Amino acid sequence: MFLEKIDISGFRGLSNLSLQLGQTTALIGENTWGKTSLLRALWSLLGHENLPYEFQDDDFYQAPCEEPVEPKKIYVRLTFREHRPGVSQHSQRLRRLADLWCRNHLDLFHRIYYIATASIANGVISSDHYFEDVHGNRIEHNESDELIRLLSAMNPVLRLRDSRSVPGNGDGDEHSGFIGDIHEWMQDCPETKQQHMEDGLHAAEFLLDRYFINVPRRFKRSQREIINQPGAFRGLIDWHELLRDMDNETMQQMLSRFGHALLEAHSDRNVEMEARPIYILEDPESRLHPTMMSIAWGLIQLLPGQKILTTNSGDLLSTLPLSQIRRLVRQENATNSFQMDENRFTADDLRKITFHVRINRPMSLFARAWLLVEGETELWLLSELAQLCGYHLPGEGVRIIEYAQCGYSPLIKLANDLGIAWHMMADGDEAGVRYIQGARRLISEEKTEKTRTGNLTLLPNRDIEHFLYAHGFDDIYRKEAVIRDIHNLPPSKIIERAVSRRSKPGMALAVLEEAFLRGPECVPEVLQRMFDHVVDLARRHS
After folding, report:
1. How far apart are CA 153 and CA 511, in angstroms?
2. 10 torsion bin: left (phi>0), alpha (psi -120 to 50), beta (else)
3. Dihedral, 366, 371, 373, 379 alpha carbons, nearest 10
4. 397 in the Ramachandran plot: left (φ > 0), alpha (ψ -120 to 50) or beta?
5. Pairing of strands 110-121, 124-132
6. 508, containing H or E segment
7. Residue 19, SS3 per DSSP
8. 3-state secondary structure 517-540
């Protein structure tokens, strides 16, 4: 059994959200877009010590810049699904929830629908917890509260985070959380902490025995696994041997922290021996060096149960298949969840995306908009020219991505799936015209609102060098060509000579140097309009 879907409305920073979950789900999105509120809802319903949870006044959604209004309402629906059709009817453990399982006749899976609602009127908060059938009808049961506690014991939410963010925990708390100040533990361990270290290792051994006993030995990875998880952590196979023969102090310290954090997450709650926890990790990279983060995430990935994490780390995202990433975007009165549909991509598409985006430009997955360009020259030019026009593209959430080697099609499809706005620029030669025509066909096939025909710019010249030459920078190319009699030479020859002496990026830098002397008026109108459009796209996605 696992948590398949969560629907939330009116809770904390979430006006409305529907989110599909997998065995591992990474949430990305900007601040105040609802990631923390989502995790708080899960912890409140399945991780709180006192269940069913009684909603508080600060749990109710308050729209930004609006006065409080009544009545307020909270609605949360958790959908649990069996792993295989019919297993809930045969498993002795799952049959304890027999009164709640509902069979869906479309896919034959059985599901449990747990509903939590709250309302506030005249200062009085009313909370209600119950279960529904597949048709949305309330299941009347005399022991609903006991079933909620049983559901939580079978699928407890364990929140692994910096203990200093928890009220009442100080910097010197004996049981610091998993994402505490790891630097302190990298120093020479004094005698006063030797017992703490030993206790931590015993805790880790207990937890590893409990959760890793069925971890299969895997020494090979398929081509698809390598493409989907290019940064996956490998090698921690035999935990008993690792603990017994450990001579790496760093690993000992990490396991100590790991053991204490998980035990602290369990607290005094009733967690079954065969429980399938839902682990929540909030920005685990914030206090860990990337090397330590690789080790820590490698440990957590092997834990049976679901993992839900928030992150701003491109390196951490590269360890996960793209299908496990959920990009949250707040739009008007709702937060939308976007995810990649792998069925729309060929193996070659995924390979290209892995190399050109996930390995070389992992932070582009956090962008609001992509500016797709053909080559390296545009990468040098456009960001600086945009700044000359008053736009700081990185600050606007715009990432420039070169597509000549990767191809535009997989990038556009990925951007559409993840809800990333995009604008494509192409040279005016035959290849560029084919790029634009192909992108237009793709726009027609995608048939989505975010792929309107204003997303394309075709330069009026054969390439960016000829475009700059024809739009006021011919003197720079003539100067760099260093030919005495150039009056009778065609522009292509002058450009060719200048590029052979300085290279295309070198000429781009020369043009930029001159542009900053002349001011924003020298930026060609075609580029100014493109900058206006791509920044407008990014701001509408903010």
Report:
1. 65
2. left
3. -70
4. left
5. antiparallel
6. helix 504-518
7. strand
8. HHCHHHCCHHHHHHHHHHHHHHHH
Neighbours of 187 (CB within 10 A): 9
Q: Answer whether 416's CB lies under 8 Å from 446's CB.
A: yes
Distance, CA of 171 to CA of 141 (rounded, Å): 46
Q: How many CB atoms lie within 10 A of CB 164?
A: 17
Give the separation between CA 475 and CA 365, rounded to whole angstroms. Answer: 39
User: Residue 173: is it exposed, middle or buried by C-beta count within 10 angstroms (0-12/13-18/19+)?
Assistant: middle
CA distance 463 to 381: 13
- What is the 3 state secondary structure string of 154-212? HCCEEEECCHHHCCCCCCCCCCCCCCCCHHHHCCCCCHHHHHHHHHHHHHHHHHHHHHC
- Show the tokens assigned to 131: 């279960």
**pLDDT band per the 50, 70, 90 thresholds, residue 49:** confident
Taking only the tens place, the pLDDT of each residue in 452-468 is 445 899 999 999 999 99
Which two three-digit tokens encode residue 257? 């922290």
* Burial group, residue 505, by CB count within 10 angstroms (0-12, 13-18, 19+): middle
> Using CA atoms, how far apart are residues 188 and 399, in angstroms rounded to an integer?
43
Say which residue, 269 or 489, is predicted with more confidence: 489
pLDDT tens per residue across span 515-533: 999 999 999 999 999 999 9
Q: How many CB atoms lie within 10 A of CB 338?
A: 17
CA distances (Å), origin 319, targets 220, 291, 322 = 16, 13, 9
Structure token pair of residue 325: 């990433």
Q: What is the pTM of this model?
A: 0.80
Residue type at position 527:
L
Residue 335: strand, helix, or coil: strand
Can you tell me which residue has the tokens 């079978």?
Answer: 154
Cβ 449 vs Cβ 487: under 8 Å: no
Contacts of residue 164, Cβ cutoff 8 Å, sequence gap at least 6: 170, 171, 173, 176, 177, 180
Q: Which two tokens stand for residue 192?
A: 């006063």
| Sign of the torsion formed by the C-alpha atoms of 253, 255, 258 and 263 | negative
Helix axes 408-418, 430-446, angle to 10 degrees: 30
Q: Is 214 exposed, middle or buried (0-12, 13-18, 19+ CB in 10 A)?
A: exposed
Averaged over 256-267, what is the pLDDT? Answer: 53
Place of tokens 């390979």: 351
Q: How confident is the model at residue 170 (pLDDT cuts 50, 70, 90)?
A: very low
Q: What is the pLDDT of residue 162?
A: 47
Cβ-contact 53, 127 below 8 angstroms: yes
Residue with tokens 């509408």: 540
Cα 475 from Cα 469, distance rounded (Å):
8
